[in-house]
Amino acid sequence: MEEISYRVTGMTCGGCQRAVAKALAATAPGAKIAVDLGAGVVRVADGPDESAVRAAIEAAGFGYEGRA
Prior knowledge:
With 68 residues, this protein is α+β, with helices and mostly antiparallel strands.
């Protein structure tokens, strides 16, 4: 199980945190997702490739800044 962390900008509240998690879960239903609002990082284990993660984050309305 590989876990990769990505930087996300624009998250300001719990609703943002849930929106990012929901967008990523829809992209990879079997993935383990942990969103750290304070650090602006999302950790994804057993998830999709980086381009799919980026697309999901941006489609949810947040900024993607690459791997953390």
